[in-house]
Specification:
Blueprint (H helix, E strand, L loop, with lengths): L3 H17 L27 H13 L27
Length: 87
């Protein structure tokens, strides 16, 4: 009889974990972009390599019909010790 009182809570817990299923990866992650922007990745505020990659991507996607990228209050990462990078 002792085992039966744990069956229901265990079944509910297993059902909840199975129903959760994990992320589907279908939509953008909320923390993927800097707040107030739609195109500036979060990494540009912490890693210089991400700033360089972002800059290269913006240069590669330049066109006369494209809207400007909103930087909002983005603070780009800097480094006193890294070597200058080609963009």
């Amino acid at each position: 009889m002792l085992h039966f009182k744990w069956i229901a809570p265990t079944a509910v817990a297993v059902g909840m974990l199975a129903a959760c299923g994990g992320g589907g990866g279908d939509g953008p992650v909320a923390d993927q972009f800097v707040a107030g922007t739609t195109e500036v990745p979060v990494g540009v505020e912490t890693r210089v390599d991400d700033v360089v990659a972002f800059s290269k991507a913006q240069i590669a996607n330049t066109s006369d019909s494209r809207d400007p990228v909103v930087l909002a209050d983005t603070k780009l990462a800097t480094s006193e010790s890294d070597d200058p990078a080609d963009i």
